[in-house]
Automatic annotation (TrEMBL):
Protein name: Transport permease protein
TM region positions: 26-46, 58-80, 101-129, 135-159, 225-247
One Gene Ontology cellular component annotation held by this UniProt entry: ATP-binding cassette (ABC) transporter complex
InterPro entries: ABC2_TM, ABC2_TM_bact-type, ABC_2_transport, Nod_factor_ABC_transporter
Pfam name, any one: ABC2_membrane
GO terms (BP aspect): response to antibiotic
Membrane listed as a keyword: yes
Keywords annotated in UniProt: Antibiotic resistance, Cell membrane, Membrane, Transmembrane, Transmembrane helix, Transport
UniProt record similarity statement: Belongs to the ABC-2 integral membrane protein family.
Presence of the UniProt keyword Transmembrane in the record: yes
Length: 252
């Protein structure tokens, strides 16, 4: 275990150094969510009725999830480049824990995506977002976003291991970015037609968005928080199991 932790720390430092040398990755990840937030708040916001005084307050939780969905594509991209560049074969010849390679990419994704989320929150504050939530509520929001990031990152690891081309490695995130649009992220699900409403109310993004929104608005979270945690934990468990199995086959 000590070897795994030490090796993971070293390899994570390597990945973070690469990101530090090209911070445009974080900027690029935040550009699309920020553009969507500007578009919906200043162009469509006046025509959308959500029952809240500030549309940016209503919109922000969904934008944060889009930020994460955009960012995890870079994990698949970086892992694919490592595979194509032969770096994993070099690591196999060294006395390091094999799983440290994957964990380094996962932890790098967590740090990079939470940084992008912080950038989006700062832009939202400049646009008028306000919350009276306390420290515990903000920590709960950060925990849910982090868990969601870990869950999607393991799916990204699987995509990076399975892709045949560099474009295919990152293309898996497109459906994930689209998913918040069919949820309560932009409009209340009650305004949607029957089949669309059923899908929106029973997919993972809606429960996560509702939980984050309630925490930031200092409202009761109800059962949404348990549904959100169950979705995140389930996706994380499945993604981790399938990705590690694919990795063992790849390096065997």
């Amino acid at each position: 275990m000590s070897n795994l932790l030490g090796d993971t720390a070293v390899l994570t430092g390597r990945s973070l150094t690469h990101i530090g040398r090209s911070p445009d990755t974080i900027v690029t990840t935040a550009v699309t969510p920020v553009a969507l937030m500007l578009l919906f708040v200043y162009v469509f916001g006046g025509a959308i009725r959500t029952g809240t005084e500030s549309y940016v307050n209503y919109l922000l939780p969904g934008i944060l999830l889009i930020t994460v969905a955009s960012g995890v594509a870079y994990t698949a991209y970086r892992l694919f480049l490592d595979l194509q560049g032969g770096i994993l074969e070099r690591f196999r010849s060294m006395p390091i824990a094999r799983s440290a390679v994957l964990w380094a990419h996962v932890l790098t994704s967590l740090v990079a995506n939470l940084t992008s989320v912080a950038v989006v929150v700062l832009v939202a504050l400049a646009m008028g977002f306000r919350s009276g939530a306390g420290v515990l509520a903000w920590l709960a929001v950060a925990g849910i976003i982090a868990l969601f990031t870990l869950a999607l990152t393991w799916l990204a690891v699987l995509a990076g291991l399975s892709a045949k081309t560099v474009d295919g490695a990152s293309a898996f995130s497109y459906p994930l970015i689209f998913l918040p649009f069919i949820s309560s992220a932009f409009v209340p699900t009650g305004t949607m037609p029957g089949p669309v409403r059923w899908f929106a109310e029973n997919q993972p993004v809606t429960s996560i968005v509702n939980t984050v929104r309630a925490l930031l608005a200092e409202q009761p979270v109800g059962t949404d928080i348990w549904v959100a945690l169950a979705w995140c934990a389930g996706i994380l468990a499945v993604g981790y199991a399938v990705a590690t199995a694919a990795y063992r086959r790849r390096v065997s």
